[in-house]
Write a structure and sequence with these properties.
Blueprint (H helix, E strand, L loop, with lengths): L4 H9 L2 H31 L4 H17 L1 H9 L3 H24 L5 H29 L5 H30 L1 H4 L1 H15 L17 H13 L2 H31 L4 H29 L1 H12 L5 H4 L7 H28 L5 H13 L1 H15 L2 H14 L2 H4 L35
């Protein structure tokens, strides 16, 4: 009899190294959520940037996933994961600290914001790929769902506290000084990771005849050759494109259309995080009751229509529509994410984890800068509300790849095959017609 999600999570919290991993994730995420509010407000309020430049700033934050996402996975598979995460945190802390220093010296420009966004984005690529590849080394496969649920709970809790804290800091000390919280968060995250006592990872053995090109190709073949990973990549890529449109235009919409003050902007974004928190704490239980496969498509299908509340919101009491839409869409996104990430980690042979995660990140996060640029361009050409209408309609389309795939007929996800010295054969999972995928 498998343990319940709650008992599995309780057992994980008894592991010192996993607690430190959670604490590091919380520290980094609180700081990052402060910046989610503060960085665009630096552009909007301090530098008076137009909509398209704000969209470019959002694009710069995620451009690294498109530019270096694929080779990053091959590099991560050749390196020890924990030291890499610590170095990435240090780089992000230093880059973020440069913004308030430049602002105090009265030399801050949009060009510096773009550079900081690109540098922190590149460090985040390596951190995130290493983080997702490190968890299966820390936990057995049967605890991955609970482990990812716990991490999402911590992240979502930080997402609840961070925007409100960010909005309050912006209102109290200014947007540029609020960025200090992000630099501190990344530094604290690095300290928690340094405190882990797990024996040092063995450096991956070099493979004879291996090359960066071959390694990248193997990761691509594994993801694109697997029918379930392929449809998950398509769905998540569509979802992230429209999410980036939202990220590029929501601050402009909340400040210039709804007339909200910085603290209210932070609280509005925190409402979204509340939905994500509920999704994180309930994802494992919902997957157990409904099926890990079925919950993937159902979560996207049931919550996507609430995105229509974004462009329908208005000044005053009607601003609550934006918060409700964000909370429900975020709930669905987190439930979807916990289920599909746990499936990916359990399915993939350990030697391919970095390349598999990086390939998927390239495919699904590579759409983020494109969505941000499109969002900024639509807002510049028309207005922010028009961009939100395009974004909301897009969320109605996101579940289509899942509904047209074998995932719709599966309740649970197929078990991973024994690791051969190569990727699982494409099509192997199609034989499991009684198994449901979400």
């Amino acid at each position: 009899m498998s343990p319940s999600p709650s008992s599995a999570s309780s057992g994980l919290l008894g592991m010192r190294d996993f607690r430190l991993l959670l604490a590091g994730a919380a520290a980094g995420q609180v700081g990052a959520q402060v910046t989610l509010v503060a960085l665009p407000l630096v552009a909007v309020l301090v530098l008076k940037a137009p909509s398209f430049q704000v969209g470019l700033l959002t694009a710069a934050e995620t451009a690294a996933f498109l530019l270096i996402g694929l080779p990053a996975g091959a590099w991560v598979d050749r390196m020890r994961k924990l030291p890499l995460m610590i170095r990435a945190d240090a780089v992000r802390a230093l880059a973020m600290a440069s913004i308030p220093l430049a602002a105090v010296a009265d030399v801050l420009t949009m060009a510096q914001l773009y550079v900081v966004a690109l540098v922190t984005g590149a460090a985040t690529v390596f951190f995130d790929v290493a983080h997702q590849s490190y968890l299966p080394e820390l936990l057995p496969k049967e605890q991955l769902m609970a482990g990812n649920g716990a991490l999402e709970t911590v992240r979502s809790s930080a997402h609840v506290a961070g925007p409100g804290l960010g909005g309050g800091l912006v209102q109290a000390v200014g947007a540029h000084l609020a960025i200090v919280a992000d630099a501190i968060g990344y530094a604290v995250s690095a300290l928690f990771l340094l405190a882990m006592k797990r024996p040092p990872e063995a450096r991956p053995e070099p493979v004879a005849g291996a090359s960066l090109r071959k390694d990248v190709g193997e990761g691509l073949r594994f993801v694109l050759g697997h029918p379930l990973l392929r449809v998950i990549a398509a769905t998540t890529g569509f979802g992230n494109f429209f999410t980036a449109m939202l990220m590029a235009t929501q601050t402009i919409f909340l400040v210039r259309v709804l007339g909200l003050e910085p603290f209210a902007v932070g609280m509005m974004l925190a409402a979204s995080a509340v939905g994500g928190l509920v999704g994180a704490v309930s994802a494992a239980a919902l997957a157990g009751r409904i099926g890990q496969g079925r919950i993937i498509w159902l979560s996207a299908l049931a919550t996507g229509p609430f995105a229509l509340l974004w462009p329908l919101s208005g000044p005053g009491a009607a601003a609550a529509l934006f918060a409700v839409g964000s909370a429900v869409v975020s709930f669905g996104a987190v439930v979807y994410n916990v289920a599909q990430v746990s499936f990916r980690q359990a399915l993939c042979p350990p030697r391919l984890l970095g390349r598999m995660n990086a390939t998927l990140r390239f495919l699904v996060w590579g759409t983020l800068p494109l969505g941000a640029i499109v969002g900024g361009a639509v807002a510049d050409a028309f207005d922010a509300r028009a961009a939100l209408w395009v974004c909301a309609i897009g969320f109605l389309v996101v579940p289509l790849p899942l509904l047209l795939s074998p995932l719709r007929r599966m309740r649970d996800l197929p078990a991973a095959p024994d690791d051969p010295q190569g990727p699982a054969a494409p099509g192997d999972d199609d034989r499991h017609e009684s198994v449901a995928v979400g």
